[in-house]
Structures are given as structure tokens and as C-alpha cells.
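To assess whether ligand presence alters the predicted conformation, the chain was also submitted together with nicotinamide-adenine-dinucleotide. Input:
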Amino acid sequence: MTIPISPADRVFVLTGAGISAESGLPTFRDSDGLWAGYRIEDVCTPEAWQRDPAAVWAFYSARRAAGKKAQPNPAHLALVELERALNLRDGGRFLLCTQNVDDLHERAGSVNLIHMHGELAKSRCERECGAEPVEDHAVYASLDEVGRCACGGRLRPHIVFFGEMPLEMDRIQREIARCTLMVVVGTSGSVYPAANFVHWARFEGARRVYIGPERPLNADAFTHVVEGKAGQVLPGFFHVEG
Ligand code: NAD
């Protein structure tokens, strides 16, 4: 199966943990809601950060170490090819929004990219004092090594914890409202608000394609569900016309 993309189309792509699975990074739902063997409540919530910042940093330091070893796979590269085909021709008909915190999309070459759940390779002030997030690739062995902001607050991972507001939601809503094709890859449809994006696109009348080895929870909202691994389905999947 291929998906035709006409000169009139605007494409919004949403990716989840599944697109990085073939790069060796574990998904979140693979083992009953654990992520790499951890309970989300212990490491991915504001409460966990207040209670035990050392445990939170240990988890994200391990994710950083794993992320450095991983390489983009053919699915990441196919999205770069699609972006180049669309954005070079017509100044921006493609936006990639990822729930992933790894940097495999940008390392593959994606440019028009939103990390709605934050980025592993950055840290920011725990006090939300207004300082910008800073690039930070460190793998911390203990909390003593973690730096502080100029205001005195401890640096925390630049990650949207469960219960916090995802990033760039205004831009995401604007882009979904004007897309004509939504492509969703490797996400279980269980984390909100991302699980609602397909409903917003349906309201706008866009075509809606899901790609992944199993049907997501929100499968009924898609016009096509293609069951397969992203790295096998995505290369050659799009036919850009015109
Ligand atoms: P999820 O773990 O809930 O779902 C993963 C989905 O990927 C499943 O539906 C599974 O069928 C599918 N999948 C597995 N292998 C695949 C493949 N080869 N090709 C395509 N699909 C495949 O993931 P989610 O919906 O993204 O939600 C998890 C949350 O945890 C997100 O908010 C994300 O920020 C975070 N997370 C990020 C990473 C990462 O950055 N790599 C990894 C794990 C979790």
C-alpha cells in the first residue's frame, strides 16, 4: 500500500515510542505500563521529582546513556525524505510532532520538529524561573553532580512529566486544524492529549493513517490502519505527486 500526497496536501505526523523500538529503545507499554523496567509514578511525575530527585535523575541518566548508543532507523529516515520532498517544493507543508524524548528524529535530519514531551538532551530549572532549557548530555552518577540554575534551583530533566502541560500546544492545534493528512506512527493511543489529535484531524476532514504492529486504542478514528513495523512500512510508503 502507498499513500498519495497531492500538491494540495499539508501533512502532520505524530510519532510515539514505537518508531524508536527498531533502534533498540524500549517502548512504554511493552511491559504493562513500565518504561525500561520502571514504574512511571516513581520517575515521571512532579511528585516523584519532589520526593526523590535522585531516582528521577538515575532514570533519565540511564535513558540518556541508552539514547547515545541508538541510531536512527529506516522509519526516521523515511520521514526525513518526506519532509524534504514536501518542504523543499513548497516552503512548509510538513510538520513532525513527536512524543519521544530521544533525539533520533533530529539526528536522522528532521527539521520542522516539535518535541511535545520534552527532550532528553536538555535540562531546565526546577523552579520554572523563566530561564531557557540548556543543552545537557550528562549521565549523572549522583545528585551531587547535577548543576543549579542562576536562581539557585536544581536542574531537572527537560521532560514533560505525567500531569504537566505538553509543550507548544497552540502551534500543534493550529497545524492540525489546517492539515489534510495526519500520519500517526508507533503510539498506543493511551497518552493524552496526543491520543486526541486524530479526533481533531477527523473533525477537520483530514485523511488519517496509523502505522504500527498492533491496533492502537483509538484505531476507530483512523481512515487507514496499516499493521506492521514502522521501519518496514514507512520506506517507500508515500507517493508525492506533482
Ligand atoms: P507506548 O509505549 O504507549 O506505545 C508504543 C506503541 O508502539 C505500541 O502501540 C506498539 O504497538 C508500537 N510499536 C512497537 N514496535 C513498533 C514498531 N517497530 N513500529 C511501529 N510501532 C511499534 O508509547 P507512546 O504512545 O509513545 O507513549 C509513551 C510515552 O512515554 C510517551 O509520552 C513518550 O514520551 C514516553 N516514551 C518515550 C520514549 C522515547 O523517547 N524513545 C520511549 C518510551 C516512552
